[in-house]
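Below is a concrete protein record.
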Amino acid sequence: MRGYKVFAGTANVEFAKQVAKNLSLPLSDAQVHTFSDGEISVQISESVRGKDIFIIQSTCSPANNNLMELLILTDALRRSSANSITAVIPYFGYARQDRKAAPRVPITAKLIANMLQAAGINRVVTIDLHAGQIQGFFDIPVDNLYGSVVFYSYVLNKNFKNLVVASPDIGGVARARAFAKKLNVDMVIVDKRREKANESEVMNIIGEVEGKNIILVDDMIDTAGTIVKAAAALKQKGAISVMACCTHAVLSGAAYEKLKSDSLDELVVTDTIPLKEENSKIKVLSVAPLFAEVIRRVYHNESVNGLFF
């Protein structure tokens, strides 16, 4: 048997350790250094010839450094005669730029796909892509898992009464509808107008929320503006409580300050991105066991379909 090895970039080492622990494997050794001018240097410290390699690296902040590190690790492993290289990217950065939404703008998600393939990636494993169609930007297999797998159990254990799932915007309706269907509850939509990037204005609520416990579902929470304003609008319409389930805790800018608002009662995220600071409102659920099982199945050429929500 060929055997496989798991390497980690520096974006989220603790997460990679948890994945390796679930696989009963040690993390393989790669030395990552940065020159004084910011250039990244990598050396693989063990033989990978003929092995199937899995690199765990989120492209979260600093996104450019973490992306370059992933590309350089891939090149080093390819030149070391690895049999195959799978990029395990828990948080896939630049995914918000997935189409030409205005004249003379790039489709950066497609550019990233091209770069990963050019570097030598044979497969990508990620979770909750901002836009599902990004899978079509690749000419290699892409496994896009769903964070709702772990959120579902957590929500059930809360034993909420009069539960309703809400989408914080029109774009997230499909995600919210799938989660509501799984929980067998109704869904509402927060209709908003975004004037510019990272700023949003809540317009109205589509659906009945008075006397309900609300679960806001989204793929990521960045500046927290959308989620907090949506929670405030829901409370104003009579919601009893508002919990948000967001897979990727980007939490940039003044996000932690905004989370102090009384509108949002709890924020549930996964460990795809390490938190910058502790917060009593934030509950972190681990998706490391899920990724470990995907890695095991991919290596053994087993179906991963059963792991999807």
